[in-house]
Amino acid sequence: MKTFKAFRTEEINQYFVNTIQEIDKSTLESGEVIIEVAYSGINYKDYLSSRGNKGVTRNYPHTPGVDVSGRIVSDKTNSFHPGDEVIVMGYDLGMNRDGGFAEYISVPASWVLRKPERFSLQQTMQIGTSGFTAALGIKKMLQSGLKPADGAIVVSGATGGVGIWAVQMLSKLGFEVWAVTGKTGVIPMLESLGAKQILNRDEIMAPIEKPLLRPRWAGAFDTVGGETLSSLLKQTSKSGSVATCGNVGGIALSITVLPFILNGINLLGINAADTLMSVREEVWALLEEIAEPLQVSKFGKEITLEQIGDALDQVGKSGHIGRFTIKVK
Length: 329
Fold this sequence. Notes:
Blueprint: E1 3-12, E2 15-24, E3 33-41, H1 44-50, E4 67-75, E5 85-89, E6 104-107, E7 113-114, H2 121-143, E8 153-155, H3 161-172, E9 177-181, H4 187-192, E10 197-200, E11 217-222, H5 226-234, E12 236-244, H6 258-261, E13 266-269, H7 277-290, H8 293-296, E14 301-303, H9 308-316, E15 324-327
Parallel strand pairs: 8-9, 8-11, 9-10, 11-12, 12-13, 14-15
Antiparallel strand pairs: 1-2, 3-4, 3-6, 3-15, 4-5, 5-7
């Protein structure tokens, strides 16, 4: 076969259209490493790219997909051998370089990570950027000195891709997890992942005019941003830590410096896409210790290339729970 299938986003008469297309394999020759994709997964950046967001993807036509697991076809650098099972996540994959919603990708060798032994190719994408982001944030929280004995940890957006993993892995580490969600009917799911309390998002929100409130938790993992993050910071105990990775609730914070200079709060930013390879290896080692794909993946859904369009629609409406994993080949 001289072509391969890919989910492509094109700009046609100022509209962005998504279709499954046959792509010539000669387009793969520009990269150092060619990978046959086994699995991918859907992240919010993929939704934005598929909708023509020029802040995510500058040029179209384009193949989204910031996550890939698969097998090496060829490597010009001789760093890998044909058949080696590998992962590529983040960097510019699926943003300004054609991504994982395709049967093959071509990338720099420096982006490629050998698959951790404990996980299958399928499981690495059930974890994906969502689980990796959660583990990276947890790693930073642990490095800040946060311990289970310090008190409860709040997870906002707890039914989203990152939130579910944060609940599961923090619980695995022995933390008392309070899960925050605006969705109904999810209490059994969150409790099965280890959450000790389930809170409606209104229960954690603090008045904008209040610079500080009574401490309620030792730390937080925020996937929402905006007023949710501001409220979490105002109610975090002295020397506590708050990790943040999302902005679906907004990019502005209505907060003073008081939580930081009076309570010594640590605000830990998470940038998964640009994580150094040495740190990626450490994060995947942590994932091998605390991530439970069988426990979490049952709340997601496995789909095919042909079903990506419908799944992206659900991601855009925030109506889904868990993570979409794409079985490519």
